[in-house]
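Homework-ish question, so no full write-ups if that breaks the rules, but can someone show me the predicted structure for this set?
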Amino acid sequence: MVEVHDMIIDELRRRLKGGLLNWDVNVKSMCLTIRVDRSSTLEAIRSLAEISEGRLHLTTISGADLGGDSIELTYFLWLHDQEERILLKVNLPKDALRAQSVTTVLPAAILYEREVYEMLGVVFEGHPKLERLFLPENWPEGVYPLRRS
Amino acid sequence: MPSVDINIGPVHPALHEPEKFVFKVDGEVVVDVEPRLGYVHRGIEKAAGEKTFTQAVYLVERVCGICNVAHTLASVQAIERAFEVDVPARAKYLRTIIHELNRLHSHLLLLGVACELMGFDTLFMMLWRDREVVMDLMELATGNRVMSAYNVIGGVRRNISDHEVSTIRKALTSLSEGVKRYRKAFAEDPTIRARCVNVGRLSPFKGISLGAVGPTARGSGINVDVRVKEPYAAFDEIQCTPITYNEGDSWARFMVRIDELHESIRIIDEALNKMPRGPIRVPVAEVAPQTAESFSIVEAPRGELLHHIYVKKGEDRPLRYRIRTPTYANMPALCEMLKGGYIADIPVTLVSIDPCFSCTDRLTLIDIRSHKRKVVRLKSSI
Amino acid sequence: MSLLKLAKWARLKSPWILHVNTGACNSCDIEVLAALTPRFDVERFGAILKPSPRHADILIVTGALTRQAVERVKRVYEQTPDPKFVIAVGACALSGGVFQGCYGVLSGVDKVMPVDVYVPGCPPRPDAIIHGVIKLIEKVSKSG
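A: Not a homework solution, just the prediction itself:
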């Protein structure tokens, strides 16, 4: 378990350099939580996909506005080969809500990124079709249901 | 020849829930598909923002009426983890039993609906007749057929007596006989095979990259099952085998579910045998003892279900509540399966992922009670 | 006049049903479906589930009426030929239930169409839904 974590962190440190901000292991759930800089998101996902030889499952992207001046995105990942749960966290400042789209590596992210865009107003650069998903057609522009202001 | 757009839905006969798909077709062949979600989007968050943790459990139960036990289970587990509460052993077993009963009912329901869509009404009626056996057990154990409100923060609401244990055993033994017959029908019946074999194929590679979960993934030979890989409730003490088929077509996905019926019956039996005596519930504080983030992942009947919450010390409501339901995760895989298939195969492929749109549309949830909560102006949008 | 009588007789003996989900959580929907299956069998009263509003006499409406569904539900109601009857099933269809006050719902189908019979419950048992259908048949048989 621990060796796997070390291997993943070593690999990410090598690939992301300063982009890897910090990491810890949640005592209760025993899963690795990694925090990266937003400009390293795509590279981090790509590294993890390579570590698991393409067998990387994205459970979801969960966006949260906790009231501060940033929005936190959590990527829930599952490495099939290593049987490891990893939480990848990225913080986005509210005055520049732009994130890297990971759809090129993980097509599963297409709907999740659209949802985060619709609910929180985060723009994913490189997303093939960043449109609304759930809200009615007549929903006003620029109103994000899960944002706090 | 230019392709033609066909709108199916939102109110259409193949589904009992409103959802719209726009199919681009070339002759009889589907070239592309675009789902339009949101017809069951209720926007649960705003109401939930005014609800306490205890109330939130009742609300998320109504995200979906079919897999409601999975929702309450994930919800209470996430809250318990954030609160650092340990649940009594007997409660964990009871949760497992009800969770598996819920799976039995859900799988029988889906297999019945699939038969109805294939025009096999006899088998549909038979499956639903046997499903009533499970509904009776749910009523016996929890007091209600559908919305059981069984899992509560800190344990479960009701105990099961020894007499009830023997009733459950007896009923499941007879159900098991029925399931054997249905397995034979699905495995051998020429009508079912003609409608399902090689229909809606999904390769293991696509399955992983598009994020398929649950029986949809297992039907493509992907070995995932949260019960085994990340055990929760009593699954760390109960043996559970993931059921996979390698064919990757609609038939394989139905077969996974039929074999899971047997597996669930076996799990319930093992849980009833191993279940220790003792308390079933511990008291839990109403407000969060510390600021924390936690999540819980369970294997709902349709696959991996995630509840992710943030709590703040001293608050009695979640700061943020996010749910990711299995049908939502399976949507990209579904679109992939439909591409290249015939229009006539759309309903079978659709139902083979066991779509649950009230799950998908519920939206992320619960916001919070922040002192300056933003009020979304709805009137302007009407 | 006798032709009208015949039509009424036929209607009472074969009230065909269309099930409309306006944003329900599924639990009412499965109970509506369960009402059609062998244990409960609403078909013994001549009622069968039809896939098209144009064939239906009765609309069984479930769900909290989401904003997205409003226009579609209205259209389904308009497409149903007269005389038509509506049964609202479940707490959500009656008043919005647990979703009352959510931004996505209008709470209660009687805001967009007249409702003849209300069946409360979360979800109502299939027996209760059948009871609702019978009440409606009684109501129609008494009317002129």
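Now go work out the reasoning yourself. Hint: Helices of chain C lie at 2-13, 27-34, 67-79, 91-95, 126-142.
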